[in-house]
Every structure is written in structure tokens, then in C-alpha cells.
């Protein structure tokens, strides 16, 4: 997330950056907290926000800026 950005704004921006597709009205479906422990001590904590969206605009990128090809393989 960027400073001043809502979770919803972040998912729209991140999804577009990675796929080229702009989500329209994504809906928050779940929030998960992941605790990282070492030797019984909490060393980190992550939050994961899960969205669902059935409307979008744009075309998928052929290659993700980070992961490479987005094409489905058979």
C-alpha cells in the first residue's frame, strides 16, 4: 500500500500494475492475519485482504512486470 491509499484503492492499483486490468467495484470478502513465530516468539505479522470482483475493463498484459508470462498453459 502507498501512503494515504485505502485497501480498496491499493487492490485496484496493484491488480492493474500486475495484469493491465482495471477492477470495477471490488468487494472485500475477508481479512486474514498471519502470525510469524520463531521459538515461540512472534517476529512478524501480516494482514491479507481478499477481494472478489466480477466487473473489469482493459486487456490482460502478455507479461507481468514481475512474474513473466500471464498466458494460460495447457
UniProtKB/TrEMBL annotation:
This is NUDIX domain-containing protein. SUPFAM superfamilies: Nudix. Residues 1-60 form the Nudix hydrolase domain. Gene3D superfamilies: Nucleoside Triphosphate Pyrophosphohydrolase. InterPro entries: NUDIX_hydrolase-like_dom_sf, NUDIX_hydrolase_dom. It comes from Caldalkalibacillus thermarum (strain TA2.A1).
Amino acid at each position: 500500500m502507498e501512503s494515504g491509499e485505502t485497501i480498496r484503492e491499493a487492490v485496484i492499483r496493484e491488480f492493474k500494475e500486475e495484469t493491465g486490468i482495471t477492477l470495477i467495484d471490488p468487494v472485500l470478502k475477508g481479512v486474514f492475519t498471519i502470525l510469524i513465530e520463531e521459538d515461540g516468539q512472534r517476529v512478524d505479522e501480516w494482514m491479507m485482504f481478499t477481494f472478489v470482483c466480477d466487473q473489469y475493463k482493459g486487456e490482460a498484459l502478455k507479461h507481468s512486470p514481475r512474474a513473466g508470462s500471464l498466458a494460460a498453459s495447457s
